[in-house]
Design goal:
The protein is of the alpha/beta class. 33% of the residues lie in helices and 16% in strands.
């Protein structure tokens, strides 16, 4: 059943001024049905959604809660639009504002691999979903679920560098159309590896550069015979990505890093984690970022 387009569930308690952080705030009428406030220090007015992911949105609090839940649970846009009573384009814009906010949160609090962590890469097919093929692409359009024209790894695949700490942090980023170079590995993991970390790899030489990025040690599991040395965690992450990718029927390559951030948050995500993320994105005093529809179409696009 579609949710009613009302703001009945939206919190209207006084919050600190989002501009100067002053607590000297008074109620100041309503704007488009939302309670408006004024700061007695800076004299600026605001509503509870100012500087949140809900800014400049006509959708009520309950719909935003629903779209965040659907995004983190891996539900399709079609499911969200029918459940929440919104159009497909609105669901698309809301989802991508959430993805951009998750990226902003990830930039403010970057994941750091510690203790024992596993590094590997996975490959997904390039995708021009939602647009015409560029003029320099010679192949015919590919139906959803179709396979690459060539066997093995080719320029039709996008490489996603992955790092997964056992039972903890995850680092994901798409880099290019082939095996990652030392420079690309360094760019992906620089600042994301704690000193003293043991990094397990499958022997790709590009990962050796990480010993110059952080005070860590690298082990090639192919040279070890004990069960401790494995890539089960990162392989589980790759299976998770492939399952969601297949369910989505591909992800547009230009948006791939937004979805990598989603995969990072959704992997091992429990119901309590979803509640915490909803609170971080929707709470008046938190600032995950304010994004417009123009940002959805142009901000942080992957150029691969």
């Amino acid at each position: 059943m579609a949710l009613d387009n009302v703001d009945a569930n939206e919190p209207i308690e006084k919050s600190d001024c989002p501009y100067c952080l002053s607590k000297k705030v008074i109620r100041y009428g309503k704007k488009h049905g939302k309670q408006r406030f004024m700061c007695n220090d800076c004299q600026r007015t605001f509503v509870t959604t100012t500087h949140t992911v809900m800014a400049m949105s006509h959708q009520p609090y309950a719909v935003w809660e629903g779209i965040i839940e659907d995004t983190l649970n891996g539900n399709s846009l079609s499911y969200s639009e029918s459940r929440l009573g919104i159009s497909h384009q609105v669901a698309f814009n809301m989802r991508h504002k959430i993805l951009l906010s998750l990226q902003k949160m990830d930039e403010k609090n970057p994941s750091v691999l510690q203790d024992v962590s596993e590094l590997d890469e996975t490959f997904v097919l390039e995708c021009y979903k939602g647009k015409r093929l560029p003029a320099n692409i010679t192949r015919m359009p590919r139906k959803h679920g179709a396979k690459a024209l060539k066997r093995g790894i080719s320029n039709e695949f996008i490489c996603i560098c992955s790092g997964a700490q056992r039972k903890s942090s995850v680092v994901l980023k798409a880099v290019n159309r082939a095996k990652p170079s030392s420079l690309e590995v360094s760019e992906v993991f620089d600042g994301h590896i704690a000193d003293g970390t043991l990094l397990l790899t499958d022997g790709l030489l590009s990962y050796n550069v990480l010993e110059t990025v952080a005070d860590c040690s690298i082990k090639n599991i192919t040279n070890e015979k004990t069960s401790f040395y494995n890539l089960n965690t990162v392989n589980s992450l790759h299976s998770f990505i492939k399952d969601w990718y297949k369910f989505y029927r591909g992800v547009a390559t230009k948006f791939i890093n937004r979805y990598c951030t989603l995969f990072k948050y959704a992997f091992r995500c429990s119901s309590s984690d979803i509640c915490n993320i909803k609170e971080m994105l929707l709470a008046p005093n938190n600032k995950p970022g304010t994004f417009s529809i123009g940002d959805v179409n142009a901000l942080n696009l992957a150029i691969i």
